[in-house]
Amino acid sequence: QFTREGNTNHLHEHKPILVGRPYSYGTAGFREHADQLPFILYRIGYLASLRARTTGKAIGVMITASHNPEQDNGVKIIDPDGEMLAEEWETYATELVNASDEEFPTAVRALETQLNDPPLGSTGSIVVCGRDTRASGQLLTQAARAGATLFRTQFEDRGLVTTPQLHYIVYVLNHASFGPAGEEGYYRHHALTFKELFDKLSKSLTNYTPKLHLDCANGIGAQKMRKLERKLPNGALNIHFRNETGVLNHECGADIVKISHKAPAGFEDVPVNERCAVFDGDADRLVYFYKKEDGQIELLDGDKIALLIAKFYKEHLSSLGLEDECTFACVQTAYANGNSTRYLEEELGITPICVPTGVKHLHHEAAKYDCAIYFEANGHGTVTYSDRFYELLERSDSEAAFRLRVMSRLINKIVGDAMADLLAVELILRHYDWSVQEWAAMYEDAPNKQIKITVFDRAAFITTKDEQKLIQPGSLQVLIDEAVKRRGEKARAFVRPSGTENIVRVYAEAASQADADLLAAEIARATD
Ligand code: 16G
Ligand code: ZN
Fold it and tell me: Are 157 and 25 in the same domain?
């Protein structure tokens, strides 16, 4: 019983699939086995159209399950400024998706009324949809289209894009002065800003080399990075593409390299000491590594990227005398390596800020400063800055102000973007004329270990806001405290429920790798 001319024709094709637990709009939207998703896409397509109608703006629907296996998929909504969906709308999403078949039309009606029946087909309101390379993506796009057009909202399928590209497209659609809102516009913008800075940097280099191996995680990043690379100045980067067309995320990609501390499959013939970069399946995470003589890898994760960028910004702000005028911060999560936090404070003089896991928490905190760098250890992050920050830089015609302005425009300030971050890292390394070894030597990672544990109900685990301690079960926290104490001063450990899977994660750091492994194992046993 949709009133206001809703078209219910598709409703029967998208009956809910029950899985014995409620679905929830988690840190990365809904993520499930792809077979369960069509009805979710249908409903989220509708919700995105409602969001578009209430704001009169373009709204994004991104279909991806990032680093998860190929057979999974997921969906998240992108708000008008290219940011994550506003929190109260996450609640609407969860309610709509959990409504039974019979309840759905009533739930829709209630939501329409609550939002004062936003206008149908108003100009500006449009849903733009994008997807990663998963086979299920096309069908799910159709479901999203059926839901979005339920009330005749315009729907545009942008096809295969990286997650950050869709964020960018949504932002540009709503900020027309920024340039053309499409993939070509994205490449143009990034290639031109890259060139602007590249042209000013010295070409006589001793330590930096443009050669780099790139693990594309067999995902969307492969074809998109190739397109971007073609537009870069000759000789600026010499990328050896790897893992372009195999099984998505299979034994490769940023998540696996970060957690297993091993080179991805397909890197067997890469010589030691050469710089390697790694994307995840939807190209919103980036980590680096190089192989060492001893067969291990040296990993340069999100923390190392954050600190490289933080050093660059901090030094430029100091040389411009803007340290007092500009509020500047570095935002991390509990997973940030203890030594990165120490380096930030002691070497760079930046007070680190710790927020809960999930991009939206980092982004919200970062947005409070004139300029902030936020990164998760897993490789997701970027730099945000205010209009005031940019105005202050524009007042100066010095080289330093120029570099900071261009760097800020190059980095995708809306969301962490593996391609944009890669360009930024490469330019900063070039600026310092650093090899990957020199970058790695900024600080040595404290040995650490992560373990996943399947639990009956992850909701039984409640943490403090910074996620470093458990409030419940309190008895487990007592055990963790004792175990940490036994491993000496440098040890640190915590347990937190995942926001994306039905598991809890154990993280431990200690003076040696053996100690970190033992500490994590001990806590894992107590958690199980
Ligand atoms: C999602 C988050 C990521 C976070 C991860 C944690 C977004 C866009 N992505 O991938 O930031 O690190 O979840 O997963 O927010 P977990 O809760 O399973 O540890
Ligand atoms: Zn991702």
Answer: yes
Domain limit, last residue, from 146, 178, 210: 178
Tokens coding 123: 């100009």
100 is catalytic: no
Residues with CB under 5 A from ligand 2 (ion): 66, 280, 282, 284
Pairing mode, strands 154-160 and 126-131: parallel
* d(C-alpha 40, C-alpha 262), whole Å: 36
Q: What is the largest CA-CA distance in the chain?
A: 71
User: Own/partner pairs for 11-14, CB < 8 Å, 24+ apart?
Assistant: 11/101, 11/104, 11/105, 13/38, 13/42, 13/146, 14/38, 14/39, 14/42, 14/43, 14/143, 14/146, 14/147
Domain assignment present for 164:
yes
* Local structure of residue 413 (DSSP, 8 states): T
Name residue 353's beta-bridge partners. Answer: 331
Judge if ipTM > 0.90. yes
- Say which of 66, 136, 340, 435 is annotated catalytic: 66
Cα-to-centroid distance, 50 and ligand 1 (Å): 26
Domain assignment present for 161: yes
Instruction: Mark which of 158, 178, 198 sits at the end of a domain.
Output: 178
Closest CA to 24 of 502, 456, 352: 502
Range of the domain at 361: 302-394+407-417
Are residues 19 and 97 located together in one domain of the fold? yes
Residue 438 lies in a domain: no
Domain count, the chain: 4
The whole-number mean pLDDT for each consecutive block of 10 residues of the chain, a chain of 528 residues, reads 59 80 88 94 97 97 96 97 94 95 91 91 90 97 95 95 98 90 95 98 94 98 98 97 98 96 97 98 98 97 98 97 94 97 96 93 96 98 95 93 96 95 98 98 96 88 94 96 94 93 93 96 93
247 and 313 belong to one structural domain: no
pTM score: 0.95
Query: Of all protein residues, whose CA lies closest to atom 5 belonging to ligand 1?
Result: 358
What ligand 1 atom has the least distance to the C-alpha of 415? 8
d(CA 337, CA 233): 35
The CATH number of the domain holding residue 367 is: 3.40.120.10
